Amino acid sequence: MELNIFVQHFINALSLGSLYGLVAVGYTMVYGILRLINFAHGDIFMLGAYFVYFATIVYKLPWAVGVVLAIIGTTICGLLVDRIAYKPLREAPRISALISAIGVSFFIENFAVVVFTGMPRPVVQPPILMKPIEFSNGVRLIPLGILVPVVAFLLVGALLWLLYRTKPGLAMRAISFDIETTRMMGVSVNKIIALAFGLGSALAAVAGIMWALRYPRVEPFMGMTPGIKAFIAAVFGGIGSVPGAMIGGLLLGFVEIMSVAFFPTLSGYKDAFAFLLLILILLFRPTGLLGEKLEDKI
Amino acid sequence: MRRVRSLTLTIFSIILFAVFLNKAPELLNGYWQRILNLIAINAILALSLNLIYGITGMFSLGHAGFMAIGAYVSALLVLSPAQKNAMWILEDIYPWLLNVNAPFIVSLILAGLVAAFFGLLVALPVLRLGGDYLGIATLGFAEIIRILITNTARLTNGSLGLKGIPAYTTLFMSWGCLGIVLLCTVCMLRSNFGGVLRAVRDDEVAAKMMGINTFKVKVLAFTLGCFGGGLGGALMGNLITTIDPRMFMITQTYNILMIIVVGGLGSVTGSIIGSFLVTTMLEWLRFVENPITIFNFNIPGIPGMRMVIFSLLLIMVIIFRREGIMGMREFSWDIFFPKPKAKSKAPREKSETVLEVQDVKLKFGGLSAIDNLSFNIKRGQIMGLIGPNGAGKTSAFNVISGFYKPTSGTIKFLGKSIGGLSPNEVCKAGMSRTFQNIRLFGHETVLQNVMIGSRIRQKYSWWMTLAPFIFTDVIREDSEVKAQAMDLLEQLGLEAFADEEASALPYGAQRRLEIARALATKPEFLLLDEPAAGMNPQESEELMNFIRRLRDEFDLTILLIEHDMKVVMNVCDYIQVLDQGIHIAQGTPAEIKANPRVIEAYLGAGASEGGAA
What we know:
Chain A is mainly α.
């Protein structure tokens, strides 16, 4: 394989993987705290993409403003979802919250169809992000391909700093061990849970924006497949672990891009590989790469 | 009398409904017939997923995949060679497939069987996982199945799907299938095997100790559920006459999941009501997507609005009535009528030593939970196992009863080695136990809890429960077991609670029920893990007499973990003492009381010297 082609694939895998990782972080934080698979997370990601589309392309705001507004809007949506659909169910059996999550997912997708219509809309990329940079050895890269992983890594780094170096981060980690005990330590558990939803939604918004730029279009169901893939990534990495989610996302990105790059005839089975890998990991290391073992006490 | 009444009413309503179905083509237009068909098909799908999830407690998100298999198998069998020839445009159909043909009924059965076969393949590896992981793995399998269907164009015509499938799904067909599925499900769930399924859901660990091979039970329930999924998929394909891989996305599974949640997880009646409500609601809501004219106003249809309203309703159901319409309850004719007012010991061959524990070690990683434990228990003895917290007492129980495999050493029970056997095998060998934190099947009645303990001694196979009116052994054995369970409850003074839910019992009664359930497996050897925990002095006084009575009336040998020293010293013939995994002493209660190492372990170093001075 030519160097240029390989570098292209590598950068593609890196940016796809880091996008999965960004979304996966949201899944893993909520799961770590509430043991809830937030099925609506992929749709929050879609909202981020739509918001930036409307801000910059329909209302012609500058990109910087549009991005900030989209992140704020998506975060508010994420918080509303928690407040309306999950908070009343904190004491309920876990399946109730899960069904509620499925309901929310349906709601957001179809609400998007009602409001934005089901038609895919093309996204006009800012030219500065698309102008190829040529290297001396013949490798050509577009700035977007580099921007995506850089932004993703910076954000996850910032999140890790928040989790391991600040008080709210400490509270968040404490809740994931034992929610009742943390409550008795005087932590406002609901605020911390809202913080987790807010952070997760903000990261999903960033991922959604970058996704819309990379595959230049938005549509109401665009969050479904990346959502499920990102959840798989979170399971790969060990659900509940933030670095694990990022590693899982990257792994999934590389498996997907490289399997198609090296075996183009199998491209139809691309998604099957991700699921097959998932099942194998679950069977041989059910708690993922960095997950902790939970045991049933007899 | 009550049964005759219920049976008469049931048969009468079935006949009434059959007459209605017979007239339906004249009474209803095509649209309503289609909805009626969909209700029956959704009910079959809901029942099968409910069996997997609501009854047996396995969170599966793979139903759409098994539906897809069923739909394709049936469609490929009923399509004529000419139709197939015309449909495969992009790639050629496999020649052998071209001429394969079968009548509709045969195709339905094969659809179910093939789906069940795939279900079995999935279940064997994946059911070792629990909880959400199982859900994700099954979701993954369903997606893989869908991707395979899309990519094996020579077999399935790929993403183009199959069109022009003969519309064989008539009202009699769909409702007939539902009738059979319903009958089999109800019969199975009413038998003691049904109790076993619910027991696995409520507490898998305790079910193992009742001698139940829980893995096998789960695989069975999952496979049966997949049969239903395949059958439903096949009926669906022959109703809408077109199938393609995109029909069987995760959304399809969510729809069925919603039906069973709305109806009530674990309730058969709920699945039927749920499929009726959800199906009609989804159809009825179509009006919001069609343009309507009211007087002279034209209201344009709003695409997507139907699912918006539907999802909002779903969220509201979950938030305000999360147990669904029926909860876990079932329909019974009795609700329309006022309520009416409402022993076996064989001599055993005597072997002197019941249990021999020889040099048993148990390590978790580098941590040694038990180090070189050796002791014997003679028949009829009550042996105490004591030690401070973390001494390894419960670990010793777990090793003996098969939950942990000893790292080294041998355990012989009635002369046979049992080290490494699983709990259900240990139970079959004649050993039973209770748990420190009571593990009852909380949603089952007291009587059912005890009956599940008798399942290992029943001879009928699970499949006979699908048609107990043919295999009358099921009815006979179940009524025997019920009578024995009632006897047992009477002996332990629990008969007044027989029809209460186990979780509703007062604490002391729950402890006794756990023992009653253990006794139902007819053990020779009983392990009791802290039976006096949480009891007041008077209750523990009663407990002492109770334990002695157990030994005498049930011919038992007993090993007892207990912290209440008064109970231990009074009731035990002999005592073993553990401290931090090390076997530090053994002897009669009097010897143990005087043993300086025991006092040191309980009170700390120096205490024994102080006591001596």
